[in-house]
Design a protein that fits this description.
Layout: H1 3-9, H2 14-22, H3 33-44, H4 47-59, H5 61-85, H6 97-105, H7 107-144, H8 153-162, H9 164-167, H10 177-202, H11 217-235, H12 241-245, H13 257-286, H14 294-297, H15 302-338, H16 345-365, H17 369-396, H18 404-437
Length: about 450
């Protein structure tokens, strides 16, 4: 926990210290509390917020409101747990999610429990942001130049990826702070545009239906499950929480959880301001005809729609970098500690360029926004945000059985497991349905 304590128990060799000073997560611990705010906002308020009105249309008013508010409360609780557990062991900081898992489950089992999930979350999020960025660029092009020759979505995804081949070589979290700040500001901006423009659309007096999207019960069941995955994706940003907190300095008098928690409080207020109006107003305005990206449903004013889509592009640039940084750290750690490769600029260049190229290729191959969100939201993001922190808390803290804390944690675990089991079924159904109707010239 404390720097003094770290020095007392620090048994690392000079080589190990040099490696830690080179790795992205541990190389710079000078972040301020507001860094936590915009990193967390950037991690959470991304592609997910744009799909929330669509998710509402698949759940209906009653279930939709309950799921939205319950998800906010559960993930707010679990992010508090992670902040508290970061320095729960005196003299040690769990700088990475898998380090907390190893402390809770054991050295080997902890890696197998956490690392596969973290890899899936980071990689899938980056793929989805590739698709979102490309779709937003395409919508911007169509809005400002409606008479221009249509351009394939794949080309816009390639254009969006080009900036990441440059930004991905920034060394650590603190070096992307300005990118993350711009992304956080854009998230608040385009969320406001989305619900404000939806109000304008809603008061025009057009007929809107709030019936479920299909007349078939089976289809509605699958869509409801997919919607759960959309919401899980929107609220899941915990995969990078410990890595963000690792950049904040810590002393015995001022542990890192103080500024980190302050930043998280502000971040979650911003999340509520972004999510709830977009979800509820967007569904109110368009009903069951809303698109899986709310900005695609808006047609005017044209200049505002075009600007909002560019705001999204800026935001998902930052979101991609925030989720990619833990992957860079994981791969580079393996390369220098397990594969015994020498830390170098060339190694970093090859690792990061290859990662960006991989996410670009997959994003071009399956650019189906709605299905990706529903499937990966439950399968990948729900475990690391909804219930894995609770399991670690029960193992490490050991609250009194059947006490308040014990019951709350088990409630979150049950909800999270249900999300993990059920929502990928709906997401896969949506993914297959969208794939069948997709045209690659779109």
């Amino acid at each position: 926990m404390a720097r003094a304590n770290e020095k007392e128990i620090d048994t690392r060799t000079e080589e190990e210290k040099a490696i830690d000073a080179w790795l992205p997560v541990t190389s710079d611990r000078n972040a301020k509390w507001w860094y936590s705010t915009f990193h967390n906002v950037t991690a959470m308020v991304g592609a997910g917020v744009l799909s929330l009105p669509y998710a509402m249309s698949e759940m209906g008013w009653g279930a939709g409101i309950v799921v939205m508010l319950m998800s906010w409360a559960i993930t707010f609780y679990t992010i508090w747990q992670m902040v508290e557990m970061h320095e729960m062991v005196p003299g040690k900081r769990f700088d990475r999610y898998h380090e907390l898992g190893q402390h809770a489950f054991g050295e080997k089992l902890g890696l197998w429990v956490v690392v596969p999930q973290q890899i899936v979350v980071d990689v899938c999020s980056c793929i989805i942001y590739m698709v979102t960025g490309g779709k937003s660029l395409k919508k911007f092009h169509e809005t400002v130049c409606p008479d221009c020759q249509p351009i394939k979505l794949t080309y816009f995804i390639i254009i969006f990826s080009s900036v990441h081949f440059v930004l991905s070589h920034l060394p650590n979290f603190n070096s992307i702070s300005l990118v993350s700040l711009a992304a956080a500001v854009m998230s608040l901006t385009y969320s406001t545009v989305a619900w404000a423009a939806s109000i304008g659309r809603g008061i025009e007096g057009r007929e809107v239906s709030y019936e479920l999207r299909s007349e078939k019960t089976g289809d509605n069941v699958f869509m409801f499950l997919s919607a759960l995955g959309d919401v899980a994706f929107a609220y899941a940003g915990h995969n990078v929480v410990l890595e963000i907190q690792a950049t904040i300095p810590s002393t015995p008098e001022k542990p890192s959880k103080g500024p980190m928690w302050k930043g998280v409080w502000v971040a979650y207020l911003i999340v509520a301001v972004c999510y709830l109006p977009v979800a509820f107003v967007g569904y109110w305005a368009f009903g069951n005809q809303v698109e899986d990206n709310i900005l695609l449903s808006l047609e005017k004013p044209m200049w505002l729609v075009a600007a909002a889509n560019m705001f999204v592009v800026v935001h998902v640039i930052g979101s991609y970098q925030v989720f990619a940084m833990p992957m860079f750290d994981m791969i580079e750690t393996y390369a220098v500690k397990s594969a015994k490769l020498k830390p170098s600029t060339m190694l970093r260049f090859l690792v990061r360029t290859t990662f960006v190229a991989f996410t670009l290729f997959v994003g071009m191959t399956i650019p189906f926004f709605g299905g990706l969100m529903g499937f990966f939201g439950g399968f990948a993001l729900a475990p690391t945000s909804y219930y894995l922190p609770c399991i670690c808390w029960l193992i490490i803290v050991k609250p009194k059985r059947f006490g308040f804390s014990w019951c709350i944690n088990w409630f979150c675990i049950i909800i999270g497991v249900l999300l993990t089991v059920l929502s990928p079924i709906g997401g896969m159904w949506t993914l297959i349905k969208q794939a069948k109707s997709y045209r690659f010239y779109q």
